[in-house]
Write a structure and sequence with these properties.
MetI-like fold; two-stranded antiparallel ribbon; transmembrane helix; MetI-like_sf; cell membrane; membrane
Length: about 375
């Protein structure tokens, strides 16, 4: 078969990509379609989900999670609350930390840059299970963290057994409220199976320890992305700003950061996707406890499907999580979009429409 024959080029192309299409269809598309069917069925896990005994139940499993008051919705909303605070704390912190580390190891005057780059990146290549076990020892009641806090006269908590919300603790410390007797309008008002007091708890002490671990382990990977972007920056712009009298901070904020916008967008997107899917740290360190304050949608989906053997509800949680991540990613892309580029694209589209309209009008006049 000659690739120079224009008639046969499409056939050759399809022959090359057919094996990959078969593999993707078999191991990606088919499981997704199967999980989607399971989420709208009453399959018990026995036999095939496509036999006649399995019934279509519509959106009942989704309704139990979103609209039906009960334990399913309470657990789902608890997992959403926990993960919301988790994302809110982890994504900005890991982004700022990664950018800071990248700027430091990109300095030419820094000796041993290769060592520091390797050291900062090392946690990212170590198994998350191994790091989770190390953090379990560090954050025990008599662990190194509490012993370090003891040097300053601070009695550290029993981290992974403490279900208190950080906002509750801080509010109690500054006198906003009393944790033992929360305000009646907060504790007595329920929204989606949780009281306002529970919604405003903040991340629990246990979840905060997991957040610290994730920030530390993921910053190295994102540091490499920022480092690659920093080394690709045009030096002429920075030198021009220096000639104009801009100091280091002004050059960083007005020259470096705008050039890093695509990388920041990528890091934040990957951070949002990864944090909403957090699973292994929760599985190893807390098993969703204490008092479900480290329960996340991904772990709840696993627990519902394979511990409680409620496979349809587990699949429904997974698809709700997918829709949430997709919506947040699109929102984040819209907020962090390059407005100048978007404006230019709109102008180009408007120009093409005007040109088509002009050609159509000219053709009509000639025909008439």
């Amino acid at each position: 078969m000659s690739s120079r024959d224009p008639q046969r080029q499409p056939v050759a192309g399809w022959l090359f990509i057919t094996p990959m299409l078969v593999i993707l269809g078999l191991f990606l598309a088919a499981p997704i379609v199967m999980a989607l069917w399971v989420s709208v069925s009453d399959w018990t896990g026995r036999g095939s989900p496509f036999i006649s005994e399995v019934n279509f139940v519509g959106l009942r499993n989704y309704q139990d999670l979103l609209a039906q008051d009960g334990l399913s919705r309470q657990d789902f909303m608890t997992s959403m609350r926990n993960t919301f605070y988790y994302v809110l704390g982890v994504v900005p912190a890991q982004t700022v930390l990664a950018l800071t580390l990248a700027v430091i190891v990109n300095q030419k005057f820094l000796r041993g840059r290769t060592f520091f780059r390797t050291a900062f990146y090392f946690p990212s290549v170590v198994s998350s299970v191994a790091i989770s076990l190390v953090f379990l020892f560090l954050f025990t009641g008599t662990g190194a963290v509490n012993q370090f806090l003891g040097l300053f006269g601070i009695s550290g908590p029993n981290w992974f057994a403490d279900s208190r919300g950080v906002l509750h603790v801080l509010g109690d410390a500054v006198g906003v409220w009393d944790v033992s007797a929360p305000p009646a309008f907060l504790s007595g008002t329920d929204v989606l199976s949780l009281s306002l007091w529970e919604w405003l708890s903040g991340p629990s002490v246990a979840l905060s320890a997991i957040m610290l671990q994730v920030i530390w382990t993921t910053a190295g990977t994102f540091m490499l992305m920022f480092l690659a972007a920093l080394q690709d920056l045009p030096t002429e712009v920075d030198e021009a700003a220096m000639v104009d009298g801009a100091n280091t901070w002004q050059r960083f904020m007005n020259v470096t950061v705008p050039h890093l916008r695509p990388t920041i967008l990528l890091v934040v997107t990957l951070g949002i996707i990864g944090t909403w899917q957090v699973f292994d740290q929760v599985y190893v360190m807390t098993d969703g406890g204490p008092s479900k304050t480290t329960l996340t949608p991904a772990y709840l989906s696993f627990q519902t499907a394979f511990t409680n053997l409620d496979l349809p509800s587990g699949a429904a949680i997974a698809f709700l999580l997918f829709l949430l991540i997709f919506a947040l990613t699109q929102l984040q892309r819209f907020v962090l979009r390059d407005r100048d580029e978007a404006r230019q694209r709109r102008a180009e589209r408007r120009q093409r429409r005007e040109q088509r309209t002009t050609r159509t009008r000219s053709t009509t006049e000639v025909s008439a």
